[in-house]
Amino acid sequence: MRLPSMSQPFLLAPIAECPPGPPGAQVRLAVLGARGVGKSAVIVRFLTKRFIGDYEPNTGNLYSRLVHLDGDHVAVQIQDTPGCIQVQEDCVQVLDSLSRCVKWAEGFLLVYSITDYSSYQSIQPLHQHIRKVHPDARTPIIIVGNKADLLHARQVQAKEGLQLANELGSLFLEISTSEDSQGVCDVFQYLCKEVSKLQHAGSTDRRRSSIIPRPKSPNMQDLKRRFKQALSSKVK
Ligand SMILES: Nc1nc2c(ncn2[C@@H]2O[C@H](COP(=O)(O)OP(=O)(O)OP(=O)(O)O)[C@@H](O)[C@H]2O)c(=O)[nH]1
Ligand SMILES: [Mg+2]
């Protein structure tokens, strides 16, 4: 069964047509990775709890829904992305939309397939690209090795995934979207929480900086010091 394009209630417009919305009003996540690693499957699993098995190779759909998070309802938007991530001249169009998506999102899920070594190799450049756009190390990025049910076809060892994630300073998990709905939900819940935390921290910082008095200009302080010095030498 194919995932119907615009008939799902949670499916919005592609990223290029979607207005950014006010900051803090929603959590914006993006799922990135090489072709065929299960990006669409993982999103649909999270949103519907179902594994359909056959997904339209996508051109970048944006999904949206309310998620229950620590007693609150949070509006979550999830950007699915096309699988073409090679830095080649003929992929410029896709890379453009990918860059837009990276700028737009606040939390990231990087997916490779444990059955495809080249998809694993694409994680590092993707991670670097995200960190360039979001230098704040608190911007959450989770790396997942998907298709963990296909052990007989494994090309990437779990320890390689873990090692890469450690090097990049990210969390790592192997999941099977087809067999384990809980692992998928945990990943998205974690991302939502981390982004929400960051949004709250940001608004607290902004409030603080508006009530802390501005430090006095160093020139003024210097002038006062010199004035005092001049005064005391006159007194002597
Ligand atoms: N066995 C197994 N198959 C999976 C799993 N996740 C996804 N698949 C299959 O992998 C294939 C690709 O899944 P998609 O979700 O379309 O992958 P994608 O990354 O969105 O692919 P593109 O949009 O073409 O880049 C489909 O046939 C899925 O059924 C998994 O955990 N286990
Ligand atoms: Mg897809």
TrEMBL record:
SUPFAM superfamilies: P-loop containing nucleoside triphosphate hydrolases (SSF52540). Pfam families: Ras (PF00071). Its EC number is 3.6.5.2. Keywords: GTP-binding, Hydrolase, Nucleotide-binding. It catalyses: GTP + H2O = GDP + phosphate + H(+). GO terms for molecular function: G protein activity; GTP binding. It comes from the Eukaryota. InterPro entries: P-loop_NTPase, Ras-related_GTPase, Small_GTP-bd, Small_GTPase. Belongs to the small GTPase superfamily. Ras family. This is small monomeric GTPase. It comes from Corvus moneduloides (New Caledonian crow). The lineage of its organism: Eukaryota, Metazoa, Chordata, Craniata, Vertebrata.
